[in-house]
Amino acid sequence: MLENLFGGTSSGGLSLKNFFKKKEESSLGLDIGASAIKIVQLKKSKGMAVLETYGELSLGPYAGVEEGKSTSLSNKQISGAILDLLKESTANVMTCGVSIPLSSSLIFEMEIPRVPHEQLKKIVPIEARRFIPVPISEVMLDWRVVLDDDSDRVIEEDEFLEDKRPAIEMGQKKPKVKDKIKIFVVAIHKNEIDRYRDIIQNAKLKLDFLEIEIFSTIRSVLGHNTGTSAILDIGSGVTKLYIVEYGIVKKSHLINRGSQNISLAISHSLGIVIENAEKKKREIGLLGEGEDKQVSDIILTNLIDIFDEAKRVLGAYQNECNKNIRKMVFTGGGSVIRGLTDYASKNLEIESVVANPFETIKTPAFLDDVLKEIGPEFAVAVGLALRGLEK
Q: Do residues 303 and 285 lie in contact, with contact meaning Cβ atoms separated by under 8 Å?
């Protein structure tokens, strides 16, 4: 079984779990982004997740650029930044879960003939070759079986065979077993996994597991939601759109614009440094009046491109699958813009909310307002830490 890409029990592939076993009672989630690193340390107490510490460190200074800008650092530089962040945040857990960006992974769904479960371990890698542009030996593969009915629910191994499927209620007909099954597949290049191992080792930490960022986000902001929802992660350099059903990523789409573009546009138009532009973006947002209206207009101009693309993708999915997306959840640094959800609800015609991953975590009362404000930026780190507590 491979638990390091999906989160939870999976059906095939190699495993890091046996090599990196968690010993601490607390859990540390480490989100290595393009412009910043974020950590969240949680512990479990009386069945609840409790916040012990958290922190964020901008990577701009390590690359010789302004804070908030995307960077391209060496493994050694990233390790050094992690060490600095651990010291500043007083985190004391030496084993961590780490996120892998969507851009470094390949996620897809495929159909194969229905076969006994034990044969899937041989068949899935063979069939997956059609979707993976590099030799299968160069990737780490993880996969799950999706229930072959309209729910698109992921099933566990003991539900796979016909005689072990959930019992049929009185009066209902036994469903016809289909000839084919859906397989949800995740592939990561082994070089990328080796890169993260190197970064974590040089940061004096032990790697507990790796997980693609979207699965961490789903855990922290959607939980056990069973409807069809969308997540719009407005990051520094890019915006990621996910459509999720029953924990399965049905659609992922990258939009090559992010919150950095908005800050740069404000900086250039007003002749101010990026740091001040970032403050105006957050504090004024889309609600500016009078002299502040210029800032709001700049923000709106840059958001239109993101929302037009998102609306196109959402519309195409709803028409193709004949399913309504009931909610849009915003994460990432760009989602802290004031007035964003009202604009999104009108523009996308979908209920829109800003994620609050700390909502279900026990935190000090005096931090409530701060954590609610920064929460969207910590969705991945919180999701990683939550997974660590589940193990």
A: no
Task: Determine phi and psi for 105, rounding to 5 degrees.
Answer: -130, 170
Contacts 24+ apart (CB under 8 A), 194-199: 195/75, 196/32, 196/98, 196/100, 198/75, 199/32, 199/75, 199/78, 199/79, 199/82
CB 182 within 8 A of CB 149: no
Residue 187 is classified by DSSP as E
Residue whose entry in the numeric block shows the structure tokens 């970064």: 199
- Single out the residue of 261, 238, 259, 242 nearest to residue 250, CA to CA: 242
What are phi and psi for residue 96, nearest 5 degrees?
-140, 155
pLDDT tens, 118-131?
888 899 999 999 99
Tell if the pTM clears 0.85, that is, is over it.
no
Comparing CA positions, the residue from 94, 13, 365, 379 lying closest to residue 216 is 379
Strands (E), 258-338: 327-331
Question: In 10 A of CB 194, how many CB atoms?
Answer: 11
Tell me the residue type at 298: I
Q: Where are the beta strands (DSSP E) in the chain?
A: 27-32, 36-45, 48-58, 95-100, 105-113, 139-146, 180-189, 206-212, 228-234, 239-245, 248-255, 327-331, 351-354
pLDDT tens string 61-115: 999 888 877 888 999 999 999 999 999 999 999 999 999 988 888 888 898 888 8
> Under a CB-based contact definition with an 8 Å cutoff, are residues 22 and 95 in contact?
yes
The Cα-based distances of 334 to 30, 84, 204, 261, 301 in angstroms read 20, 25, 31, 10, 14
Given a contact cutoff of 8 angstroms between Cβ atoms, the answer to whether 53 and 90 are in contact is yes
For residue 238, give the nearest of 254, 262, 249 by alpha carbon: 254
Question: Is 289 in a helix, a strand, or coil?
Answer: coil
Amino acid 314: pLDDT: 94
| Residue 351 structure tokens | 């209920």
The token duo for 273 is 């440094």
Give residue 109's region: left, alpha or beta (phi > 0; psi -120 to 50): beta
- Domains of the chain plus CATH, in order, are 108-188 (3.30.1490.300), 225-355 (3.30.420.40)
